[in-house]
Design goal:
This protein is an alpha+beta fold. The chain has 7 helices and 14 strands. The strands form 3 sheets. The protein has a 6-stranded mixed β-sheet.
């Protein structure tokens, strides 16, 4: 089973590029972020005619996540548990059944967190975007713990807006005070891994300069001035199924690209 994650940065802008990539890459499941569309405005027919079941958790003009799956999607839930007041569309879950196992798939678009707002003691200010990011990550950790207890194989994939290590940025010093690379953010990411989750790409490829995002500005793509912020975290049972993981870097050079590129895993499930 090939599962991919792709922050498309707007379905309207990627209305041609996304189907082209799907036709070429043929993922069984694709997790999308930043669809920037309400549910009823998402062009599901384009994907249904390609054999995909479509589930969305949309929001007008901002955020929004979706799952496209050639396999039936069961027990679909929308929204990350833990805060009933959170109205941002950033999380969707569903179960797919492979030849041998059921797999819980969690698609996420983790908050960016900038600007970083701290008080005089260096603590994130309540109500600020950085505090929201860190609180969201605590909720994600709690959900991962629940899924681990249930012992169903699962993965959490999407745009994490986290640069895990210095080698995941072309210019790490430029990101020191950014919410994507601050120590609190990276610690929250490590806390997820310390539950026993596997970061799929680094389990397969330890080379530096492997990125999934290049800004549209300042010739970042041509300079390979990128960062790696799109990740698959796999439960222990899911990690045992992984046979490969990669980044479709060349998509970034095509016409009207997203600033992100797809990341994928192959699972023997």
């Amino acid at each position: 089973m090939k599962i991919a994650t792709f922050n498309i940065n707007g379905i309207k802008a990627r209305i041609n590029a996304l189907p082209d990539w799907l036709d070429e890459a043929q993922p069984d499941v694709a997790l999308l972020q930043e669809i920037k569309s309400v549910d009823e405005g998402f062009p599901r027919e384009i994907f249904e005619e390609r054999g995909y079941n479509v589930e969305t958790h949309g929001q007008k003009s901002f955020n929004g996540v979706a799952i496209l799956s050639k396999l039936p999607l069961e027990d679909v839930t929308r929204g990350l548990p833990g805060d009933d007041t959170d109205e941002q569309a950033r999380y969707i879950e569903a179960t797919v059944v492979g030849e041998r196992e059921a797999l819980r798939i969690c698609g996420l678009y983790l908050p960016n967190g900038n600007p970083v707002e701290l008080d005089d003691a260096g603590t994130p200010i309540a109500g600020g975007k950085y505090a929201y990011k860190l609180a969201w990550m605590e909720r994600l950790k709690a959900r991962a713990q629940e899924l681990l207890v249930e012992e169903t194989p699962f993965l959490m994939a999407g745009d994490y807006n986290i640069i895990p290590q210095p080698e995941d940025a072309a210019r790490p010093n430029a990101w020191t005070e950014d919410a994507l690379f601050r120590p609190e953010s990276r610690k929250a990411f490590r806390d997820l891994l310390n539950l026993g989750l596997t970061e799929a790409f680094r389990a397969r490829d330890q080379r530096p300069a492997q990125y999934s995002f290049w800004d549209y500005q300042a010739g970042a793509w041509n300079k390979n001035d990128g960062i790696r912020i799109d990740h698959f975290l796999l439960s222990p049972a899911c990690a045992d199924m992984m046979t490969d993981c990669g980044i479709d870097k060349d998509i970034r050079a095509r016409e009207k690209p997203s600033d992100h590129v797809p990341v994928w895993v192959n699972l023997d499930v």
